[in-house]
Design brief:
Helix content: 55-70%
Oligomer: single chain
Distance between the termini: 43 Å
Number of helices: 12
Number of strands: 3
Largest sheet: 3 strands, antiparallel
Strand order of the largest sheet: 1-3-2
Length: 237
């Protein structure tokens, strides 16, 4: 935790003169998404508050916001922890992704589409793969889907999916083989991009449906092995 707090202190300058719980929650959300605070980590009010130079009340409000986003969980008499997702959580995340991402692609207007940022995400993924940076590839994959959602031009949809993608990262951090998990989807990202480049949004949506279905199956398989399905642990009738 000492090393984590030292690095977190570097973010103090991001708060500027308008330190608010929302700005603190933005910093912590990013750090959680990066795996800086892995699932199950207890967050110290004194340590984090001191590193960021914010009051206890401000930090508690930031914790409350992130708890509402399902990134943190408060355990009575124990403190605040980075949430550990269940299999049910992962399945629900993918249901939400399928509803939103497919609707975004289906609702695109007439081509050409503004795909520069989507292309950049694919390039980012290729660079990570070339450098054997498989966790970085996972980040690039999320960037790809974030930019896909951004094609809708909806700030509300972007905000909704920011939380969904942050939760998804919690699941990724549990995986012990990010190469096997993320590498197969690099080529799929490129095929979705190519379909959109020629204006074939129907083909892009079809590719996306299969992509999300296969990704869910793969990550649930890993998750059952690493975390276990809490439903299976309940006593029978």
């Amino acid at each position: 935790m000492t090393q984590q707090l030292t690095g977190l202190a570097d973010d103090r300058a991001l708060l500027g003169r308008t330190s608010t719980a929302e700005r603190v929650s933005d910093i912590l959300r990013s750090r959680i998404a990066e795996g800086y605070f892995p699932p199950g980590t207890r967050l110290s009010e004194d340590g984090i508050g001191g590193a960021l130079g914010v009051s206890r009340n401000t930090l508690r409000e930031a914790f409350r916001l992130l708890t509402h986003e399902r990134l943190l969980v408060h355990e009575l008499n124990r403190g605040v922890f980075v949430r550990v997702l269940t299999v049910e959580d992962v399945e629900d995340i993918y249901r939400t992704r399928a509803l939103v991402e497919c609707a975004v692609v289906r609702g695109l207007g007439e081509p050409p589409y503004a795909l520069d940022r989507l292309r950049a995400a694919v390039t980012e993924g290729h660079d990570c793969a070339a450098g054997n940076d498989w966790k970085g590839l996972g980040t690039a994959n999320i960037h790809f889907h974030r930019e896909l959602v951004a094609l809708a031009g909806s700030a509300r949809t972007d905000e909704l999916m920011r939380g969904v993608f942050a939760e998804l990262r919690l699941a990724f951090h549990v995986v012990d083989d990010p190469h096997r998990l993320h590498e197969p989807y690099l080529a799929r990202n490129r095929r979705i991009l190519q379909a959109l480049e020629v204006g074939d949004k129907a083909a892009a949506e079809e590719l996306l449906v299969v992509y999300l279905r296969d990704s869910l199956r793969r990550i649930v398989e890993v998750y059952r092995r690493r975390v276990g399905d809490e439903r299976d642990e309940q006593p029978g009738p």
